[in-house]
Design a protein that fits this description.
Blueprint (H helix, E strand, L loop, with lengths): L3 E6 L9 E4 L10 H10 L1 H4 L3 E5 L5 H8 L4 E6 L2 H14 L5 E5 L13 E4 L8 H10 L8 E7 L9 E9 L2 E8 L1
Parallel strand pairs: 3-4, 3-6, 4-5, 6-7
Antiparallel strand pairs: 1-2, 7-9, 8-9
Length: 183
């Protein structure tokens, strides 16, 4: 793989301080450690033995952090071939290949209802995809009313919540996390 070990690391749990492979450049925008630590502090009571579905998975940073903190398994959906390779290589580095499933697909072509405990999406900034993701997930019945839905977005791209109850919202510089449940 063309990835190299980066400053991107697991912040807590079984794989704490393990570094992940990434590709330098502006096309990758992994979640910062500050935001990641805050996210997992907020959802700590929901992560144990959870099944996580991650859209726009990138390097797998969020899913691997979840596995490190006690999630049982993760399904990562990503359309970039480079990212798919990074996810698989990072899973091998951490020894969690059996705990993940990687789906090479555009997230808007994905429609399998797998009833995740946690759904996370971190779409590219500047494309206003957050609301579209929520509509897609609801219309394709990807989620259940029990699924905790988390969208990472630019703070100016506040996702609409039609069909969802917004249960939390946090800002970290230009990054925001919105938390929802289906109505």
């Amino acid at each position: 793989m063309k990835g190299r070990l980066s400053n991107l690391r697991i912040t807590s749990g079984k794989y704490k301080n393990k570094r992940l492979l990434s590709v330098p450049g502006k096309s990758f925008r992994p979640m910062s450690e500050r935001v990641k630590e805050s996210l997992f502090s907020i959802i700590r009571s929901e992560i144990q033995d959870a099944f996580l579905l991650e859209f726009f998975a990138g390097t797998g940073n969020v899913s691997f952090e979840a596995l490190s903190r006690g999630a049982a398994r993760a399904r990562l959906v990503e359309k970039s071939s480079v990212s798919i390779g990074l996810i698989k290589d990072n899973a091998e580095l951490l020894g969690v290949k059996e705990n993940i499933e990687v789906i090479h697909s555009d997230v808007f072509d994905y429609s399998e209802n797998v009833s995740p405990d946690i759904f996370f999406a971190g779409p590219p900034y500047g494309e206003n995809l957050s609301a579209t993701i929520l509509v897609h997930a609801r219309e394709k019945k990807i989620l259940t009313p029990d699924t905790l839905v988390i969208i990472q977005h630019h703070k100016k791209d506040l996702p609409g919540s039609i069909g969802y109850e917004r249960i939390d919202y946090r800002e970290y510089g230009i990054t925001a996390l919105s938390f929802f449940r289906l109505l």
